[in-house]
Design a protein that fits this description.
The chain is mainly alpha-helical. Helices cover 72% and strands 3% of the residues. A two-stranded antiparallel ribbon has the order 1-2. The chain crosses the membrane at residues 12-28, 60-82, 94-116, 136-158, 187-206, 212-233, 266-285.
């Protein structure tokens, strides 16, 4: 039982890394209707910005806050001067543009800061507590609770606020939203800015667990995309639940199914994607879209 609890807790901690990126991907999709493959790179850039502010002498909390604000501005500018040129065209072209943006951002980070590993301090204490025989890191527990709080805020934003409803309306039908008087351009910028700010929070949470490198979130981005597909593109709750499920199932399968082990556990999310797409294409928590023809 102690082993099971330990694997579950560690899986939730790892899944929280995936969930942080998955939430940002859901936010961009809800605001613009696009899937942002550059989200991992933008989160890494935000983490390096926070690191630079720390090196400049700012306290950790203040450095993270400034990085969040700077990331909001960067996200808004990226939408205004780059992504907007592709939003009205073929969605596949826009997706390719975000992949190119990922390459560009990763290259900029590598040129400015290099490929050497850098240590990022943690907001939370590194001590551990014993829960039913399992050793639980307070940092992992705090990270999980932070992701849970962000998920709740995003769910309230999209379902209960005028801004969230306006972002969803613009993503569903920009032309109709413009005719209704909504400032489509500004809302798109806000959506990308919020996603970039969320990426900064994700970078701040993940940075202490992984040493800072330009490609530190490349693998996590794959899992985050899997979580978004499993949970539903329009559901923050679904994205987080799926990310946690992937993290926990990976750990359990690696230990309790020797045939799979640690080498093949990466196949777990892809098997889940196949099953879910067959049984429920919109994801576990996603809305079924009905198109009138």
């Amino acid at each position: 039982m102690e082993t099971f609890i330990q694997l579950t807790v560690d899986g939730l901690s790892t899944g929280s890394v995936y969930a942080a990126l998955a939430l940002a991907i859901v936010l961009v999709n809800q605001a613009t209707g696009l899937i942002n493959f550059a989200q991992g790179g933008m989160a890494v850039l935000s983490a390096y910005l926070a690191y630079a502010f720390l090196e400049a002498g700012l306290p950790l909390i203040l450095a993270l806050l400034v990085a969040v604000l700077a990331s909001f501005g960067i996200g808004a500018l990226v939408e205004r001067f780059l992504i907007r040129r592709f939003e009205r065209g073929d969605p596949d072209t826009a997706v390719v543009a975000t992949i190119g943006l990922l390459t560009l951002v990763t290259g900029i980070v590598a040129v400015v800061w290099g490929y050497n590993n850098r240590q990022f301090p943690s907001l939370f204490p590194l001590t551990s507590v014993d829960i039913l025989g399992a050793v639980v890191s307070l940092r992992s527990l705090a990270t999980t609770l932070t992701i849970l709080a962000i998920m709740g805020v995003l769910q309230l934003l999209f379902m209960k606020t005028k801004l969230g409803l306006a972002l969803r309306a613009v993503a569903d039908n920009p032309a109709s939203s413009a005719l209704s008087g909504l400032p489509v351009g500004r809302l798109l910028m806000v959506g990308w800015g919020l996603a970039a700010a969320l990426g900064a929070i994700a970078g701040g949470l993940v940075g202490p667990q992984l040493t800072l490198t330009p490609g530190m979130l490349d693998g996590a981005l794959v899992y985050a995309l899997a979580a978004v597909i499993l949970g539903g593109l329009d559901s923050p709750v679904g994205a987080v639940a799926a990310a946690w499920a992937i993290g926990v199932l990976e750990n359990l399968v690696a230990v309790y199914i020797p045939l799979i082990g640690h080498d093949l556990k990466i196949a777990v999310p892809f098997v889940l994607i196949f099953v879910i797409l067959v049984l429920r294409p919109q994801g576990l928590f996603g809305r079924k879209v009905v198109v009138r023809v």
